[in-house]
Amino acid sequence: MAQPDTFGRYRVVRRLGSGSFATVWLAHDDLLDTPVAVKVLAENWAHQLDVHQRFVEEARILRQADSAWLVRVHDLDVLADERPFMVMTYADQGSVADLVARGPLPLDEALRLLTEIGQGVTALHRHGTIHRDIKPSNVLLQSSPVGQRVLVADLGFAKSIDGASGFTAAAGTPGYMSPEQSQPGGDIDVRADVYSLGAVAYELVTGRRPPPPPVRVPPRRVRPGTPRALDELIMAALSEDRSARPADAQTFTDRVRAIRMEQDLPEGVPWRLRHAAAVRRTAGAAAVVAALAACSPAAAAAPGFTFGRVSDTTGSVSVALPVEWADELQPNGWSPRQLGLVGGHEPGLLAATDTDAWRDGGSTAGVFAGLVSRSAPGPELEEIIDAGPCPGEPRRREYSDEHWGGEVWEWDRCPGRSSFAAAAVRPHAGGPVLYLEVRQPSPRPDIVDQVIAGTRASA
């Protein structure tokens, strides 16, 4: 639909998104001088009585539940064409799905989010409602004076607990819904939402969606260092047998909170996961690099290799590397939080022979380069590397050229006899810290130095 000027007294700013049944708009309440989100039933469903009633019921549940962990409904009205719209809390930081798409999270942050999601689901259960569609895109994030707030949203599939014990139509999102939800006519209870919480937990911890049931690969196998108590809790929540799951969202949430408080959680994200969720293949990356190879001043500096240049999507990070390494390119940035550092989404890129295999090492070769923070005073590699990606202690050396100064750590005994180098450097003239990783089939410190020397970053 075309952008309207207003919905009632609410002045429309822009569209936020659309689904099968409704469109959500960012609007402004001029009377109270505050932004709001306005959810409007789609035109093609305007005369479907059951859909109309479900839309109104969603607004009613959210209004009556009135929890700090749920999206709040402030108003409900009807347009001239009889389509209902609800006025809700505006979540200015997007959704948990947006957060996960940037890369795996430090465990403490993942468990903090999971605890707050669980509190929202618990509020619904106390109200007598089963959500039936808990997933990262239905959990919104809002700025607040005390930090980020989690808001469970989208109750389009919600059903009363009393009405769910009999005939229930199949509803939910594959990958997040319990096995019993996929069976038309099956009865469900609050443990269906516990399964969904387990699925969200699996994704927050590993950066991957859980496989279809039965889930046989525990999070600990994907993310080494995951506490055993958390591993066991997630697998129990994802059990096909609902009697083996935690009894309800409150029980699940209490156990998550206890694990977060009692465990000595690793601060960063394991090496093998750092780039897994952020990888996006770009066809023809090698051809792009090869076309620019002749322009690279590094081309004659490393015998046996022709160097070319690749950049991230913002143009803030540019790397010179052997063209043979640039079969695939992920230019969409990264999050320093993957290393346990401060920072949001920063410019960065990964160019490699196989970006999917980058996290596992082996025979892949390539370069990762990313800005750590545009205002950070450091960091040193000691702050970044909590455990080596390869066996043994690294060789540590200072690095300096005409542009960069910093340090390099190198490992030579990596899987498949490959080598790995990590560097943290800053321009002598001042500017953002740059973190680099270089994988290659055999130890070549001269190649590492050429990559660093040919890399450029702008604030």
From TrEMBL:
The keyword Secreted does not apply. Its EC number is 2.7.11.1. SUPFAM superfamilies: Protein kinase-like (PK-like). Residues 10-259 form the Protein kinase domain. GO terms for molecular function: kinase activity. The keyword Nucleotide-binding applies. Keywords: ATP-binding, Kinase, Nucleotide-binding, Serine/threonine-protein kinase, Transferase. Pfam families: Pkinase (PF00069). ATP binds at residue 39. It comes from the Bacteria. PANTHER family: MITOGEN-ACTIVATED PROTEIN KINASE KINASE KINASE 20-RELATED, SERINE_THREONINE-PROTEIN KINASE NEKL-3. This is non-specific serine/threonine protein kinase. It comes from Nocardiopsis suaedae.
